[in-house]
C-alpha cells in the first residue's frame, strides 16, 4: 500500500502586489489555482475554486477520475455564480490543475485534471514529464503547426489562456489517469514557476531535495531568482510505500547522492533540451513586467472565446458581408438594365423593348410591343437611330415616339397600318 507525502509553498513574487494563487493540500487531493481579474477578482476566483474542491473532497467517498472531473466542473460553476452575483467580479476566472489519489486498474494511481496553463508534472527515475496540456494560445498554435516551439517562447501572446474556470457556466475539463509507483514525485505549479524557470532547472531542484516541502520552497526561490514577475505556487507530492518510507531522490542513471546542492543529472537535462540557459534569457526580449501586465489585463477576455470559435465567427461574418455586397450589386444591375425602354427594329417592324440596347451583362432587353409600323414606312433618316435603339425614359414616351413617326409617315404619304399589333413579352434583341 502506498502513501503520499506532500509539501507546498506559495509566494507573491517580486512584482505583483497581491498573491492571486491558491493551493490545496489534503489527504488525497491536491490543487493549484491561478486567479485572473482586476480589483482582487482573480484572488476571489482562485479561492472559490479551491474552496469548492475542498468541500467536495471532505464529503466524498474515495476519489475517482470521474469524481475529479465533476468536482472541477462544480468549481467552475461556483466561480461563475460568484462572478454573476457581483458586477465588480464580472470576467474573473482562474486556472486550475488538480491531482487526486485513486485506484487505477487495481493498483495505485492518480487522476490529473487541468483547465488553463497551470501545470502538473511527474518525475520518475529522475526524468521530468509534463502531464498536463497548457490551454493557451501559443500551445494551440504549436499543436496546429502554425509556429514552432522556439517561436512560442517569445510569442507576444504566450500567456493568453484559452480556457479558464468561471468564464462560462460550463467548461471542458482535461482529465487523465496515470499509474503511480513508489518513488514517483508529482509537482503542481502556477505559471509563476513554469513561465520563469526552465524544466531542466525544475528537474534539478526536484532531484536534489528529498523533502517535498523543502523542494517546493527551493522552486519558489528559483522563480524569484529569475525575476519573480508573477505569483509563484508549488505543491510537491511524493509516493512512497509504507515499508520504504519517503521516496529518495536517487534514480536510474543518476545515482549520485544529492549533496552540496549539486545535481549530477542537470547537465544531461540541459543537453537533452538543446539549450544552455533557461528561457529567462530569451524572455529579455519582452520585459517580464509587461508580460504579466498583458496576462493580468487580457487573459479573462482571451478566455471568453476559444480561438477556433473566433476564427469561425469572423469567417461567417465576412461571408455574410460578402453575400450582402454581391446581392446589392445584382439588384442594382437588374434595376439599371430594366429601368428604361427603347424603340428598335425587329423583323422589319418598329418594336418597343424594355431594357438597354444591346443588353446589360446577362440581362437582355425584353419585347414589350411589336408595332405594325415597318422600317420602309418611316422617314429614312430615322433608320440609323432605330437600328441602334432610341432610348426613352418610360413606356409612354416610347409609344409617343412611335406615334410621331407614324404621323410623319402619313404626312409624307407613306402607307401604314392604322393601329399597332401587341405581342407577348419575351426576351429578344433588336434586329
Ligand atoms: Mg500566474
Largest sheet composition:
5 strands, antiparallel
Spatial gap, N to C terminus: 101 Å
* Secondary structure category: alpha+beta
Strand content: 15-25%
User: Helical element count?
Assistant: 12
> In percent, how helical is the residue content?
25-40%
Order of helices and strands: EEEHHEEEEHHEEHHHEHHHEEEHEHE
How would you write the strand order of the largest sheet?
1-10-9-6-7
The dominant shape is rod-shaped
Mean pLDDT: 81
Bound molecules: magnesium ion
Quick one: how many beta strands?
15
Uncertain residue segments? 244-306, 420-424
| Rg | 39 Å
Compile the SSE list and pairings.
Blueprint: E1 2-11, E2 21-25, E3 29-36, H1 41-58, H2 65-85, E4 93-104, E5 107-115, E6 119-124, E7 127-130, H3 137-143, H4 149-153, E8 174-179, E9 185-189, H5 191-194, H6 199-208, H7 212-225, E10 232-241, H8 266-273, H9 288-304, H10 307-338, E11 341-346, E12 349-354, E13 366-374, H11 383-388, E14 390-392, H12 395-411, E15 426-427
Antiparallel strand pairs: 1-10, 2-3, 3-4, 4-5, 5-8, 6-7, 6-9, 9-10, 11-12, 11-14, 12-13, 13-15
The structure holds magnesium ion.
The site of magnesium ion (MG) has 6 residues, from helix 5.
Characteristics:
5-stranded antiparallel beta sheet, alpha+beta, 12 helices, rod-shaped, 23% strand, 431 residues, binds magnesium ion
Folded structure, characterized:
The protein is of the alpha+beta class. It is built from 12 helices and 15 strands. It has helices at 41-58, 65-85, 137-143, 149-153, 191-194, 199-208, 212-225, 266-273, 288-304, 307-338, 383-388, 395-411, and strands at 2-11, 21-25, 29-36, 93-104, 107-115, 119-124, 127-130, 174-179, 185-189, 232-241, 341-346, 349-354, 366-374, 390-392, 426-427. Strands 1-10-9-6-7 form a 5-stranded antiparallel sheet. Strands 2-3-4-5-8 form a 5-stranded antiparallel sheet. It has a 5-stranded antiparallel sheet with strand order 14-11-12-13-15. The structure holds magnesium ion. Residues 34, 190-192, 230-231 line the site of magnesium ion.
